[in-house]
């Protein structure tokens, strides 16, 4: 049995943006010049794109990946993904 893995908000936003534009994984792959598997990893939040890929995503697809990642990280740092602020002291 595999453990359930939550997909980060930035990945869900990226996938939703692509769906709204009518782009599938293969389309995104060819448009930004990366492998199908890497796009799938981004859509599922398994891997985070490097800076250069983030800029390419923004320029080609119009999705601000850097902003999405920043907002996600900020939320995690400030109080966890669920919005709580529990310290492990």
Can you describe this structure?
The structure is a single chain. This protein has helices at 9-20, 25-32, 36-43, 51-61, 65-79. By secondary structure, the protein is mostly helical. Helix 1 packs antiparallel against helix 5 and helix 2 packs across helix 3 (36-43). It is globular. The termini are far apart.
Task: Give me the secondary-structure topology.
Blueprint: H1 9-20, H2 25-32, H3 36-43, H4 51-61, H5 65-79
Helix pairs in contact: 1-5, 2-3
Give the tally of β-strands: 0
Low-pLDDT segments, ≥5 res: 83-89
Please tally the helical runs, counting DSSP H or I stretches of 4 or more residues: 5
* Radius of gyration over all CA atoms, rounded: 14 Å
Q: Which band does the percent of strand residues land in?
A: under 5%
Main sheet, how many strands, which sense, barrel? none
Structural class: mainly alpha
Elements, N to C (H/E):
HHHHH
**Average residue pLDDT:** 88
Roughly how many Å apart are the termini? 32 Å
**Which range best describes the helical content: under 10%, 10-25%, 25-40%, 40-55%, 55-70% or over 70%?**
55-70%
So what's the overall shape? globular
